[in-house]
Design goal:
By secondary structure, the chain is of the alpha/beta class. It has one domain: TIM Barrel (Alpha-Beta Barrel), CATH 3.20.20. It has helices at residues 19-27, 48-58, 80-93, 121-138, 159-170, 178-187, 192-197, 230-243, 259-282; strands at 13-16, 35-38, 63-66, 98-101, 143-145, 173-177, 204-209, 213-216, 219-221, 248-250. The protein has an eight-stranded parallel beta barrel with strand order 1-2-3-4-5-6-7-10. Strands 8-9 form a two-stranded antiparallel sheet. Helix 8 packs parallel to helix 9. The longest helix has 24 residues, at 259-282. The protein starts with 12 loop residues before the first strand and ends with a helix.
């Protein structure tokens, strides 16, 4: 269990700010939301009415950002201008931390999809070097997210070995996606609980939670387009029991339900966090 609450940039339960949700949230800002997250690429250099909407939220909620297109594992040169833009964006809006996907999304162009990095020692060193460069430019640590994947390109190492090796080699942090553990454990036939327990507690900055699509009994697609399912809720409760009540961000990217349904999921996160806090107190 992590013993240092200061490692978390935020607290409680957060919601991903998506443009289709903005007007409803502005009309009645929910008290259930403790923090928000956006993809910086969707808001950098955005002005006018949309820029004012974004400022409305950054003035009311703590913010973190989760990148989509840095492509940290790509063979192409690192997009240092994007990193500089992110640094300026974070300073402008008082954003508390930046995370990215442990994946890549193209070489010369943008594929708009997250591709798996080969699980090899060579890839560990390559990715870690690029992460260290990003951290040097930003002058702060970043977190990497464990991503969902469907066909591994090289399994010289396991997914678990690869993730932990990159974090150690780069000396960066982890944004742990609970749903991605569930998805990958079903698609690649491993124990999600055992995988989760091996994650380095001292590097965790916050959790992601989302829904996925059931394509078949042995195939899940990470869509962020449905309610969180029982397996993810159960694993989240197990994660809180092991790591403590880590801040958790709810992702919903499309098929938006009535706002009350999203708020109910936030309330459920908070209830599980409270149970974990009470268990910690009871256990001394």
């Amino acid at each position: 269990m992590s013993e240092n609450p200061s490692q978390y940039p935020v607290s409680g339960a957060g919601l991903g700010l998506r443009r289709p949700l903005a007007d409803k949230l502005m009309a009645d800002p929910p008290s259930e939301i403790d923090f928000m997250e956006v993809a910086p690429e969707n808001w950098i250099h955005v002005g006018g009415a949309l820029g004012k909407k974004f400022r409305f939220f950054t003035e009311r909620y703590p913010f973190v950002i989760h990148g989509l297109s840095l492509s940290i594992g790509a063979p192409s040169p690192l997009n240092e201008q994007l990193v500089l833009d992110i640094k300026e964006f974070m300073a402008e809006h008082g954003i508390l931390m930046y995370s990215e996907h442990l994946s890549y999304c193209g070489d010369d162009g943008q594929l708009y999809d997250l591709m798996p990095i080969p699980f090899t020692e060579e890839a560990v060193k390559y990715v870690a070097g690029r992460v260290r460069r990003v951290q040097d430019i930003l002058e702060q640590r970043i977190a990497l997210e464990n991503v969902s994947y469907y066909t591994p390109t090289d399994t010289s190492m396991s997914e678990l070995e690869f993730i932990t090796a990159v974090l150690e080699e780069a000396d960066c942090d982890l944004m742990l996606d609970i749903n991605n553990i569930v998805v990958n454990s079903i698609n690649h036939n491993y124990d999600p609980h055992a995988f989760m327990l091996k994650m380095p507690a001292e590097r965790i900055r916050y959790f992601h939670l989302a829904g996925h699509y059931v394509e078949a009994e042995d195939l899940r697609i990470d869509t962020h387009g449905s309610a969180v399912d029982k397996q993810a809720w159960d694993l989240l409760a197990d994660a809180y029991a092991h790591f403590g009540p880590v801040p958790t961000m709810l992702e919903r990217d499309f098929n938006f339900p009535p706002m009350e349904e999203l708020l109910d999921e936030l309330r459920r996160i908070k209830a599980l966090q409270l149970q974990a806090e009470q268990a910690e107190v009871a256990n001394g």
